[in-house]
Amino acid sequence: MNQEISLDATLPATPRGARAARALTVHQLTEHRLPFTDAAQVVAELAANAVTHGRVQGRSFRLRLYINPGPTLRIEVSDTRAEAVPPPVAQAPSPEDESGRGLVLVSSLAARWGTDQGPVPLKTVWAELDLTGPLSPDRGFHDPVGHSPVTLDA
């Protein structure tokens, strides 16, 4: 397993930026032949939260991915609304609620997750996924589309 994987991307705080964050994650992990399904879902949820709850007009959000010993994939999504901190424990919404399931999903997929503050005005929501566990039969290492859905600059 390649321990050198890292991604640091600044993206617009828009739905398109959130989709790009997920696409970049899939691309990066498939390039390194790592399972991407859970990571892509976690990134999608954290990026959607950054765009929905952490958006400040004219400011972007940042996505970081890297491997820690274990091996563990660390996902970090930073935005500039430090006052909009998620609850420390994901709360399941009522069945009638139309939203609010993102952090419950992150909590179920990640080994650990949390929030770090600073430097002002940043807030970073992070999640760690252990890469040592077995893959389920429906999860693999190949992008189901067969190509990167975004163009990456060299």
Provide the descriptors you would attach to this structure in a database record.
five-stranded antiparallel sheet; 154 residues; alpha+beta; globular; 27% helix
Description:
- The protein has helices spanning 15-31, 37-53, 102-109, and strands at 6-12, 60-68, 72-79, 112-117, 123-130.
- By secondary structure, it is of the alpha+beta class.
- A five-stranded antiparallel β-sheet has the order 1-2-3-5-4, covered by helices on one side.
- A hairpin with a 5-residue loop joins strand 4 (112-117) and strand 5.
- Helix 1 runs antiparallel to helix 2 and helix 2 packs antiparallel against helix 3 (102-109).
- The two termini are 23 Å apart.
